[in-house]
Design a protein that fits this description.
With 424 residues, the chain is of the alpha/beta class. It contains 16 helices and 14 strands. It has helices at residues 3-16, 20-23, 46-56, 92-106, 122-125, 135-148, 152-160, 169-173, 206-215, 222-232, 258-271, 287-304, 332-344, 375-381, 386-391, 395-402; strands at residues 37-42, 64-70, 81-85, 113-119, 177-183, 250-256, 275-280, 285-286, 312-317, 320-321, 350-356, 368-371, 405-406, 417-423. The mean pLDDT is 95.
């Protein structure tokens, strides 16, 4: 058994389980009898979801629309238009696409169908700021939240209350029947949090958004503070809430989840004769804190043969956070592995992978990295120190020097991070 190959194959299986080209067709509604179908969407999976719709849609049935995805994540399409825009910080390309999507949805009638393709990353890609908040200020508050370490669900509370299209407002803007297909990248698969829920009721309020900013020490631009303040005082309307009759014509259907991908990855280990234990798809928190807990579990297995007898693969998902302290180039997956290395010290008999199913960990071109039994010795020979690299948030630099980055290119899906620790 080659541990490196086994870990990589498990990650590849996890990604394949959420591939829109494999899964979308089974969830498509029938075309409307009299009306037309408008396809809209946003997220890292938007282009592959759009292509999957094209391939499965009846040739004679009307089909039009556009989706917005991250730069370099597009695909050639025939009937639907793909726009590329900024992620994780929004930009004017996404703003223009969101404005067009909202206008075209508003022009639909009761006989029409709005087919919304929603996936992780849509919160920044489908950015259409509320009146009075310029794009520059939305960018500023997004950058500050990203640097603060705030979890994605809390970030999205703020985004929904600064948007004209998220937080259920896309569904609110149209008279058509709405079918939303969602690829979930959030813990617990909360439809209101995936891409900030453009077609889902929003239980949060302007006051909640203010609390999130305060909790994470983010001082917003004046325009943002003014808008949220007006909302909290009831001077402007809030997002549509659960129980609103408008959602009687809306169906939000999750078609891929993090847990489904964990199960696919676990099956690879089981076929190789290794017990796989899924620790959950909601393992979140600061990456180095999560690594500390995982290291304690590994030590218990190595030292006492429990709670799971080796060989065993510990599989988990969920989006960790990283509080920026240094100037390195790592993402949350490589940060987790660096911290795991620091906590364990002795890596004999332990290998691990941590990678983002979207193919991008942080701001570099790798999906994640591998931690191998000889990583410590090879690092020492190169003059690398895991502790120093961790202090500088430089997981990319550390694993790049070792040649242990996991590089897939854009996968055009996103069901959050995949982690597996193999204890021999």
């Amino acid at each position: 058994m080659d541990p490196r190959r086994l870990l990589v194959e498990s990650f590849e299986a996890a990604v394949a389980a959420a591939d829109p080209l494999r899964i979308v067709a089974a969830h498509l509604p029938a075309p409307p009898v009299r009306g037309r179908t408008l396809v809209v969407g946003a997220g890292k999976a938007a282009a592959s979801m759009a292509r999957a719709v094209e391939l499965a849609w009846p040739a004679g049935a009307p089909l039009e629309g556009l989706v917005v995805t991250r730069y370099a994540h597009g695909l050639p399409t025939d009937r639907l238009r793909v726009v590329e825009a900024g992620h994780p910080v929004p930009d004017e390309a996404g703003e223009g696409a969101a404005a067009e999507i909202l206008a075209r949805a508003a022009a639909l009638g009761p006989d029409d169908l709005l087919l919304a393709l929603v996936s992780g990353g849509g919160s920044s890609l489908l950015s259409l700021p509320v009146e009075g908040v310029p794009m520059a200020d939305l960018k500023a508050v997004t950058r500050a939240l990203l640097a603060s370490g705030a979890p994605i669900q809390e970030m999205n509370v703020v985004r929904k209350h600064l948007s004209r299209i998220q937080g259920g407002r896309l569904a609110q803007a149209t008279r058509a029947r709405v079918q939303a297909l969602l690829v979930s990248d959030v813990a617990g698969d909360d439809v209101s949090a995936i891409a900030s829920g453009p077609c889902a009721p929003d239980p949060s309020t302007h006051a909640d958004a203010i609390e999130v900013l305060a909790r994470w020490g983010v001082t917003p631009p004046a325009s943002v503070a003014a808008h949220l303040g007006r909302g909290a005082r009831g001077e402007i309307g809030d997002t549509p809430k659960p129980g609103d009759p408008l959602f009687e014509r809306v169906d939000n259907r999750i078609i891929a989840t993090a847990h489904g991908s964990l199960e696919a990855g676990a099956r690879v280990f089981e076929r190789a004769g290794v017990r796989a234990v899924i620790l959950g798809d909601t393992v979140t928190g600061e990456a180095r804190d999560v690594a500390q807990v995982m290291a304690a579990l590994v030590r218990e297995i190595r030292g006492y043969g429990g709670p799971f007898a080796p060989p065993v693969a510990l599989v988990s998902g969920g989006e960790c956070t990283v509080t920026l302290r240094g100037t390195g180039r790592g993402g949350r997956c490589s940060e987790f592995l660096l911290a795991l290395h620091k906590e364990l010290g002795d890596l004999s008999g332990v290998t691990a992978i941590a990678a983002d199913t979207d193919g991008i960990d942080g701001v570099e071109s790798n999906a994640g990295a591998l931690l191998l039994g000889d990583s410590g010795a090879r690092a020492a020979a190169l003059g690398l120190d895991a502790r120093r690299s961790l202090d500088d948030n430089d997981g990319w630099g550390f694993f790049s020097r070792l040649g242990d980055l996991v590089v897939t290119g854009p996968t055009r899906t996103n069901v959050n991070d995949y982690r597996a620790i193999l204890v021999a």
